[in-house]
Amino acid sequence: MHERTFGAQVRRIFKIRKRDVGHKTLRKRIIDGAEIDGLHIYQLIAAMIIASIGLNVNSTEAIIGAMLICPLMGSVIAIAYSISALDMRLLRGSIVGLLVQVGVCLLTSTLYFVISPLSNTTSELLTNSSATVWDVLIAFVGGFAGALGITRKQEPATLIAGVAVATALMPPLCSTGFGLSMRDLPLAAAALYEFLINVVFIAFGSEIVFVILHVPLKSDLDGDGIVTAEEMAEAEMRSRRLRRRLIFFSIIFAVPCLFFSHRVVYKAMQENGTVFEVQDTYNTQSVTKQLSALCKEFKSYRIGQLDSYDQKEDKLNQRTIATVTLSTDIDEDRKVRLEQFLKVAVDGIDEVVFEVEK
Asked: Which of 69, 287, 335, 352 could hold 47 in an S-S bridge, CB 3.0 to 4.6 Å?
């Protein structure tokens, strides 16, 4: 009895449908959030100018302020909702609305950086122009949290603002505008890719919440006001197909992030001393190849320094010794020629030693 009670309590705590607003209120919130008007555009322009200034002068505070103002999140969540509801009309409207907003953002940021006397590439600009798997994870979890917030009965504004800061939709667009203004197309493309990664995985994370909440499908496919059993079955099939495509596209789209992430991890390991780059001071690889071509008995080659103590002069001497390993012994003339080659190829060799290893 106690076990069943405990299990029921755990399920109640983790129940995602608890205190949701209902499908009608949710749909109204989604549509209102994706609506674009003059006030929306002016707010977007103001946010872009603040974000561009923040990136231009390396001001984290200005960037965070711009992300709190930015109204881009509404269109992204609307895209996820329309996919889960199979509402193609809302999907088209949300995509068009997002494209209009992106166009306004790029135009605003590009014009700012054209006019700005500061043309240096700041660390904030570089940070927001390289997508990694961590950006994917943040966008996915942020989209999940944002969708949860918008489905709750309480006002979701605070949570949505936090998600907007975490997922950082605006800074990559500012970096794209900077790249366009500087005619640096690789930088602009990398920043735009980071923005699109955020959009795709915010939508993906939001989609999971809407699927769990069983958002009603728009089953009236022919628009006659009557939903037949055939239309319901067709709507279910289309919905599953659309979601599978979303998953497949999201995974493929995230593949380039693995390359960028590898570079970030490798650089971090170098800075922490975990990875050491071996410098070929004595040009060992090239010399080894040439020895292999000059001598058919050649097996291996190594070079290093040997410390020896000189008792007469009371000091430590350091000598550079090259060791050539052969499969069979060779005559002295050939050894002399090989020794002469090594002393020409590598500066500072004090002694050449030949070994035979069968």
From this structure: 69
- Rounded to an integer, what is the distance from CA 237 to the centroid of its chain? 33
- pLDDT tier at 315, thresholds 50, 70, 90: low
Number of structural domains found in the chain: 2
* Nearest-angstrom CA–CA distance, 137 and 166: 11
Domain coverage including residue 344: 284-356
Q: Minimal CA–CA distance to 318: which of 351, 281, 279, 352?
A: 351
- Domain shared by 168 and 57, yes or no: yes
Distance between CA atoms of 38 and 61, rounded to whole angstroms? 27
Q: Is 60 exceeded by the pLDDT of residue 226?
A: yes
Same domain for 108 and 32: yes
Q: pLDDT confidence of 122, banded at 50, 70, 90?
A: confident
Q: Which residue has the tokens 């949570």?
A: 159
Return the SS3 of 352: strand
d(CA 294, CA 302): 16
- Mean pLDDT of all residues in 100-106: 92
Q: Between vectors from CA 170 to CA 167 and to CA 171, what angle results, nearest 5°?
A: 90
- Residue 284 pLDDT exceeds 90: no
State the burial class of residue 326 (Cβ atoms within 10 Å of its Cβ: 0-12, 13-18, 19+).
buried
Tell me, yes or no, whether 105 and 214 share the same domain: yes
In terms of Cα–Cα distance, which of 218, 158, 168, 223 is closest to 196?
168
Instruction: Answer yes or no: do 105 and 186 share one domain.
Output: yes
The predicted-structure confidence for 138-167, as pLDDT tens digits, reads as follows 888 888 888 887 887 665 555 666 666 666
Q: 90 lies in a domain?
A: yes
165 domain residue, yes or no: yes
CATH code of the domain covering residue 337: 3.30.300.30
CA distances from 7 to 3, 11, 18, 213, 319 (A): 6, 6, 16, 21, 75
d(CA 279, CA 263): 19
Q: Is the pLDDT of residue 104 over 90?
A: yes
Does the structure show a pLDDT above 70 at 74?
A: yes
- Would you say residue 318 has pLDDT above 80? no
Q: How far apart are CA 216 and CA 87, in angstroms?
A: 10
